[in-house]
Amino acid sequence: MEFVRTQAHCGVAFTFEGYAIHPWRDDYRVSIDGISARGDCLSGAMVAFRELARHADELTIESDYLRAWWD
Fold this sequence. Notes:
By secondary structure, the chain is an alpha+beta fold. Helices cover about 20% and strands about 40% of the residues. The two termini are about 20 Å apart.
């Protein structure tokens, strides 16, 4: 979350991917398993994003699209 806050100050908005298990279940949880951003101003975020996502199962780093997903 700190990464996203830092990048927001630079004008980059990230979207999270994930799922939630209903609170009525014993195994209630909210899981974030992916993060992505689209836009023209991503060059400043690329180095930090690559470090954040260095262990991701899927990683896409393009000039206008960043995405990481963990299994």
